[in-house]
Amino acid sequence: MSQVNPEISQKELELNPNLMEKPDTLTKIFIRKFMKNKLAVVGAIFLLAIVLISILAPIISPHPYDQQNLLAKLQPPSADYWLGTDRYGRDIFTRLIYGGRVSLLVAFGSVLGAIVIGITVGALAGYFGGIVDAVLMRFVDVIISIPSIFLLITIVTIFGSSLQNLIIVFALTSWTGTARLVRGEFLSLRSREFVLASKTVGTKSYKIIFTHILPNAMGPIIVAATLLVGGVILSEAALSYLGLGIQPPTASWGNMLQDAQNYTVMLTAPWYPFFPGFLILLTVLSVNFIGDGLRDALDPKTLE
Amino acid sequence: MTALLELKNLKTHFMKKKANIPAVDGVDLTIQKGETVALVGESGSGKSITSLSIMRLIPSPPGKIVDGQILFNGQDLVTLTDDQMCKIRGNDISMIFQEPMTSLNPVLTIGEQIIEVLMYHQKLNKSQARTKAVEMLELVGFSRAKALVDEYPHRLSGGMRQRVMIAIAMSCNPKLLIADEPTTALDVTIQAQILDLMKDLSKKYDTSILLITHDLGVVSEVADKVVVMYCGQVVEEAMVEDLFDEPLHPYTIGLMGSIPSLDDDLDRLQSIEGNVPPPEHFPQGCRFAPRCPHAFDKCRSALPALMDVEGGSRKVRCFLHGDKEATS
């Protein structure tokens, strides 16, 4: 292959010495950048542990999750009951790890759904603008103006509060923020020169939306998603508190917390509300840390 | 020689709430195969809108091609559907821009951005496209092209990015390359390299270039033919030697006069009096009349037509020249 002017590039290499090094593979760069954020690493390890323990719940747990023992109710933590027992004498540790399955599934499932809907609506509105934007955003306004807790209660009352229903309901009520965020990002990104440049080489609209603009908007979307995960875990707890969440005897962190919301229980067995509450706190916190780490690691502008 | 691109009475207007803004108002332009045509004019003269019209990338609404034809190889681009245009963009006509710093996608590697074009237009598979991408980068003068394909744009300098843009634009051997002020944002030494590169490539692949610029130095360097635009219209068209020997239109004379020169010992640069009028306030007659030192009564009442002069070798839109009887 002929070269038009080889000495130029040689000169530019000298001026720009970091170009001499062989670039690492993208995965390597990603991992290195993620590892730099210690909080994110701690969060990732913690979340991974929770997920693993939840998956392996039947193997790990010392008791069946719904086995009642009324003689040993509200026991403090002991060798037999590691984190104590609840009002019916069920092992709290066992119920926590089984509850993790439900809570995490609801949280991640519905956030995934919400993000997909939010990105689609926001991207279409922001990219095409005009009448498409007006129609979609008014629809978003309508959804936002319905108080979501009443919508949740209504849907759950009509269709029941099974796991799938909860995931669908949370996804359908929590995508609006993401849609607005994505629309804003797209509005500013679509007028950038690189979008025009990719149009001039014949790139189709859907490709511009998903491979050119969306990756540029990923940072804020990831942060929004991690915040949503926390929000959904808390909403599930709130629904359970109203008795509309996951129904006992199936455990979720939310309905365990609700079960503990009782004056006498809180006084006589403070560990009972403490453990599910603390677990929710730690999980939401580590998801947020991971989100921060992901955002930085995925941004090519902060390579080193 | 056959005409590769022919604009016939192209009119691109912007529909604003109150007024209809004629950004491009009846442009005729011919580009032969292998020819480099420079489109010159002040900011706001309609150069960029003309080029975007050829690509059919006018932001719409409010912009619209209201009249005229864009014949590319005899095919009228105005009548094509968007899908058909996508096949032409990048494959037959491609474009490079003024700002190399922002015209590459910051989150995609350079390789990904070239490979995408090759896979779409040339129907190559990924590894073929990658090989071709490396070849293209070598062609535009990168010696370590193999490593460069996995590099992100922010690690490159402005001149390097503009060469990457040229590599992307030339990857499918287009018949026409539209360069919208490709060197304006670069420093002088890099400018020369980029212009040389474009000249070499156009010769090698017989690619026509439509060079949009306001830099007459660049024009004299690379263009075969020059088209001068003012207020959305062509005011003069000539081969580059003729134009620099003897500019005919008072506007072209004014433009030439405003080039700083080392030989003349002037305290102040010459400039053309006044500003380009905004499109909603175009004067009735000749659009340059209010700023023209030679304007007479007729200029203020009637719009001159683009007339053949000097035996048809060049054209000018001015009552001072050519057939004095011809009016629009």
Strand order of the largest sheet of chain B: 6-7-8-3-9-10-12-11
Largest interchain contact: A-B, 42 and 52 residues
By helix and strand content of chain B, what is the structural category? alpha/beta
N- to C-terminal separation of chain B?
30 Å
Low-confidence stretches of chain B: 324-328
Biggest beta-sheet profile of chain B: 8 strands, mixed
The CATH topology of the largest domain in chain B is Rossmann fold
CATH class of chain A: Mainly Alpha
Number of strands of chain A: 0
Mean pLDDT of chain A: 83
Number of domains of chain A: 1
**Silhouette of chain A:** globular
The count of domains of chain B is 2
Number of helices of chain A: 15
What would you say the CATH architecture of the largest domain in chain B is?
3-Layer(aba) Sandwich
Fraction in beta strands of chain B: 15-25%
**Biggest pleated sheet of chain A:** none
What fraction of the residues of chain A are assigned to beta strands by DSSP?
under 5%
> What is the class of the largest domain in chain B in the CATH system?
Alpha Beta
CATH homologous group name of the largest domain in chain B: P-loop containing nucleotide triphosphate hydrolases
Cα-based radius of gyration of chain A, to the nearest Å: 25 Å
Keywords (chain B): ATP-binding, Cell membrane, Membrane, Nucleotide-binding, Transport
InterPro entries (chain B): AAA+_ATPase, ABC_Ni/Peptide_Import, ABC_transporter-like_ATP-bd, ABC_transporter-like_CS, Oligopep_ABC_C, P-loop_NTPase
Protein name (chain B): ABC transporter ATP-binding protein
Membrane topology (chain B): Peripheral membrane protein
